[in-house]
User: What shape does this take?
Amino acid sequence: MYTQALDVHGKEAAPDAADGGPAQRFQARVDAEEKIEPKDWMPEAYRQTLIRQISQHAHSEIVGMLPEGNWITRAPSLRRKAVLIAKVQDEGGHGMYLYSAAETLGIDRAQMFEQLLSGAAKYSSIFNYPTLTWADVGAIGWLVDGAAIMNQIPICRCSYGPYARAMVRICKEESFHQRQGFEIMLTLAEGSAEQRAMAQDALNRWWWPSIMMFGPSDADSKHTAQSMRWKIKRFSNDELRQRFIDITVPQAHHLGLTIPDPQLRWNPATEHYDIGPIDWAEFHAVLKGHGPCNRERMQARRTAYEQGRWVREAAAAHAEKERLRSSASRTEVGVT
Amino acid sequence: MSENWPLFEVFIRSRAGLEHKHVGSVHAADERMAIEHARDVYTRRQEGVSIWVVRSGDIVASDPGEAEALFEPARDKVYRHPTFYTIPDEVKNL
Assistant: This one.
């Protein structure tokens, strides 16, 4: 998981003026599908856009461990438990790949943590919804990871090398996440009436938030055009959303579940599914911090950070002691 | 906010017979922890049989601004490649 187009807030990144100098050479390289690497010249706005996008993506991975981590101790079997631990561990790993990529742009990790913990940085709106039943773990894997993969595959071709490479690694690992989620849904859908109801309830609650993961509609997405010129983004939010809907609706049919959208219809003229209106007021409210779990998520991250403090300090003190000890013994050898 | 632990670049040998390849970076208090973090972050699916970690500050890199001076001289020396030489078809084993 989980990049999300969070480009509704934040200042418009002003493109550097094309002056025939480095800015124009940079754009020519991007146009020619060359990759930009950390030490290459890049416009300041490109750097800032990437720092914002990659760090928010990293934060989403880290916060994303919380809703699913909620079910590790209550997984219904040892197999499910082992799988869920592996998945949550992957999300942590994805956060690390992305922080590492962001650091190549000149921001350091402590700064990024601070932005997350102070609430200055955004993370994907989807993680501010609660995981109320075991079926939610299935729905997250199937829908949320599914939407994330749809978003992330084009970023494997992003113009910025370190981000693209991190994305390739993440996408490879992500496909197990989606499949294990679908398998959970399938098991429930083929189970008792109560289990089927649980699967349907999870779909009812996760469908629309998953659809919103693609970000605001193209008409309201202010960074899309510039990000496309820079080849950070390859497809618009609405294009990716439509693709996700078109592949996911038949999967829901296979499960025998109903998508919670009475206006959902196959449109033979466009060969796409038409959907009902998206509740953008909800999306904006969740992004602004008014979702069901925003406070709980932030509190969990701050607590983890505070409770880990003594470990970080002890490790740093130990490293310093070892360094002094080894330099002392070197001096001794030198003297004798 | 506490300071960063030092940054280490991570190189992984995916199997014996192949070279170590750069995969990313980790923060760690010391070398040993850097190896352990690299193991957790970059080899969850048997991606490696050996790990190198190097303090990022110890890496000396060429400047992209010098790329031309460094690499341009090789461009016109096509005679360093075997395909530069014309050999009659009937001559074998060359």
